[in-house]
Specification:
Layout: H1 2-22, H2 36-46, H3 49-72, H4 81-97, H5 99-104, H6 106-131, H7 139-146, H8 156-182
Helix pairs in contact: 1-3, 1-8, 2-3, 2-4, 2-6, 2-8, 3-4, 4-6, 6-7, 6-8
Length: 195
């Protein structure tokens, strides 16, 4: 029963990430509200071993291809995308190594989701600071990359807020779905009368 639920969650995660930008209905307040980090984290914890790493990265790659071709007209590999893939891989490996403990302790999984959000935020914004000529290459420029971002773009701190909220929301949703579907429903069998 877990596999159909997992496949549904993968499909839903892909749609949540791809459909709003394709339909041009993604508002600034929705920026970075995505289930991908949760999919990587929960995939490493709950999916069968062969699917744990492969499926989240296929979803990430396919959704990046679709968005970069049809929405952003951007190359699939750039200085902005490579750090994101690296951080997701790191989150997946760390969660996979602790998967048994994270399955048993829901609060630990939510804490790991919070830590993953912080890691993603720090690493990707530091990579943007290092690679984007719009940032001065000093401490003040790095703080700008972590808070306000480049002028004319939404503030990066808002992206972090949305990322944090979406990671906690989708991780909780994933945990609830897996808990509900993993329970075995006992069907009462009436006792057979002795003849």
């Amino acid at each position: 029963m877990l596999m159909p639920v997992a496949l549904f969650l993968i499909f839903a995660a892909t749609l949540v990430r791809v459909v709003p930008p394709l339909l041009h209905v993604q508002h600034e307040w929705m920026g970075n509200f995505s289930p991908l980090a949760s999919l990587v984290l929960c995939g490493a914890v709950f999916f069968p071993r062969r699917m744990a790493a492969l499926v989240p990265f296929i979803v990430l790659l396919v959704s990046d291809l679709v968005l970069n071709i049809f929405v952003y007209s951007a190359p699939i590999l750039s200085w902005e995308i490579v750090p994101r893939y690296f951080v997701f891989a790191l989150i997946g490996v760390l969660a996979f190594n602790k998967r048994e403990a994270l399955r048993r302790h829901p609060l630990a999984l939510l804490g790991t989701s919070l830590a993953a959000s912080l890691l993603f935020y720090g690493a990707t914004n530091t990579a943007s600071w290092a690679g984007d000529p719009g940032y001065v290459k000093n401490f003040a420029g790095w703080i700008q990359a972590l808070t306000t971002g480049v002028k004319g773009q939404p503030q990066t701190i808002l992206f972090f807020r949305n990322s944090l909220l979406s990671d906690l929301f989708f991780t909780s949703l994933f945990m609830v779905c897996m808990a509900v579907t993993s329970r075995k429903v006992a069907i009462p069998v009436p006792p057979v009368a002795a003849v």
